[in-house]
Amino acid sequence: xxxxxxxIYATQFLDYYIPHRYRExxxxxxxxxxxxxENNFTLIISLDCGIKSADLxxxxxxxxxxFIVCDHHLPDEILPDxxxxxxxxxxxxxxxxxxxxxxxxxxxxxxxLANHFNIDExxxxxxxxxxxxxxxxxxxxxxxxxxxxxxxxxxx
Length: 156
Hints:
This protein is mostly helical and 156 residues long. The protein has one domain (2-155): inorganic pyrophosphatase (n-terminal core), CATH 3.90.1640.30. Helix content is 45%, strand content 8%. The chain contains 8 helices and 3 strands; from the N terminus they run H-H-H-E-H-E-E-H-H-H-H. It has a 3-stranded parallel β-sheet with strand order 1-2-3. Helix 5 runs antiparallel to helix 7 (128-137) and helix 7 crosses helix 8. The longest helix is centred in the C-terminal third of the chain and has 15 residues, at 102-116. The model has no long low-confidence stretch (mean pLDDT 91).
């Protein structure tokens, strides 16, 4: 995804942060938000987490950091104050397939960005093998879009 996004923006404007699961726990972390603030980042894209992180995303907003949440977990009644939430399990979401894995949701974001910026398919379809791996690792149903993505990912 980092290489894909670098095709849209100059790499000097991009970085990634992977939270340490034992020190920071699961999901969005205060340490990650603080890292973003210290490095003058203005946007965080969370993957496979964030839908239940309203307080932390609110904290990020006080620091001038926006969030795009890509998640597939069931949301709470209160949604985070993010600039965008991509989660088919939201109450009013009309996306037809509700069982994408977290990586699948991120892949959908990459696909939409590629279409918006007229980036050739080869620059995101090359990640289908990772999407297939994530479908298995995230233990989601092997039906619908997951089945299609896994099929083409295994071919890759």
